[in-house]
From TrEMBL:
Residues 367-389 have a biased composition (Basic and acidic residues). Keywords: Hydrolase. CDD domains: Ras_like_GTPase (cd00882). Gene3D superfamilies: P-loop containing nucleotide triphosphate hydrolases. Coiled coil: none annotated. Residues 30-87 form the G domain. Residues 367-390 are annotated as: Disordered. InterPro entries: GTP-bd, P-loop_NTPase. Transmembrane segments: none annotated. GO terms for molecular function: GTP binding; hydrolase activity. This is P-loop containing nucleoside triphosphate hydrolase protein.
Amino acid sequence: MDHTARPNILPETVTAAYIPQPITREDVVIAVLGVTGSGKSAFISQFCSGAAQEGHGLKSCTSEVRHYTCMLSPGQNLHLVDTPGFDDTTRSDTDILKDIALFLSTTYQRKIYLSGLIYLHRIIDPRVTGSIARNLRFFKKLCGDDSFQRIALVSTMWDRVDAQTGASREAELTSTGSFWGDMVARGSKVYRHDGSFDSASSILTQVLSASQRTVLHIQRQMVDQRRDLDQTDAGMELEAELLREKQRMQRELTEMKEEMEEAMRERDGEAAEALRKQQLDYEAKIRESDRQRENMRVGFEKMHAEKEKEMRKLVEKWNIEKKSIAREINEKQRLLESLAAQVERMGSQMQKDSERLQTAQRELEAAKKELSERREEYTRVARREREHGGTSGNAISTLFTVIGGTASSLALLFLL
Ligand SMILES: Nc1nc2c(ncn2[C@@H]2O[C@H](COP(=O)(O)OP(=O)(O)OP(=O)(O)O)[C@@H](O)[C@H]2O)c(=O)[nH]1
Ligand SMILES: [Mg+2]
């Protein structure tokens, strides 16, 4: 294990947003797998910032296989393939296996080979639970022994565990054949990830440093040998698992029927009804398990055709949505235009009103000035008259002029 290598995937190479790029033969492709919540999307997001959606709740987050692209060097793209975990809370294992198998077969058929696989595991998990072990089994079957040396086994969340506990869990994983042991014995490398860019980048750099590419069992079996999915190693593993589960449910169903007969003999209606409901539930589960097994009896070409049909339906749905959104945008645009015209009309009216107001203010100022001049004039005339002790014809005419001017100014004030 090498924790000292300097990261040479620098933050500047991280792409700012997810721009899906078609994968070419020259590109580097790395698949990221692991149970739900192990940190696959978070790991990928370190390099394609904000791209892969991370989950923060209890539900599985990534529900389909999707690749994210970042640039390794000018002209060379790196695609990180995000996958849903087999224990997804929203989709069946067969649907997930089909999706992963389809991606791997399609790329392989186009002679695009994987440069490596990264398998993530949460070091904070105190035990390798049934579902973790199951996930690992499918993963190993998917890859096949000859690809083990291209696998990076990465335990995540080292920032959330004390070093000693983490180390002892890691030792158990690597020393137990049915966990990581058999893969490590055949060349898989073990790494630790603490959630930081530096640790993710150091791991990716080391995965990239080995130049050889690999072909997985599922790729050879589906494309070269043209097997149906249920005839591949991974498919057979899943089929066997589904069969075991079905047999278990059938055994329980038989016991349930016996218990129900007994409850009816003892006239315990309540217990019989509860058992009847449980029985219906089990029968539905068994039918679903049969449907899942049937679902895997499909070859690469048919899987491809099914996916294309699904995509065409999606595109049709998008087109309908696009049209309705375009209609909505047009309506909003028209509304906006009519509002803008209204605002413009109000604006020009306001402009006219403000001009009229300014004219009136100017006239008022002039009238005030005139009034005060005439008042002064009147005062002067009155003073002169008092001084000369009489009223001349000239003075009377001046007085009339003053009074007349004042009246017109007052009239203007009232108008305003
Ligand atoms: N502290 C810490 N948190 C991490 C680390 N890796 C992932 N997480 C967090 O763990 C949660 C689950 O991570 P995801 O990347 O969504 O896990 P996933 O494997 O993609 O899960 P699915 O899409 O459901 O299969 C997210 O909240 C991550 O931010 C880590 O190394 N340290
Ligand atoms: Mg995810």
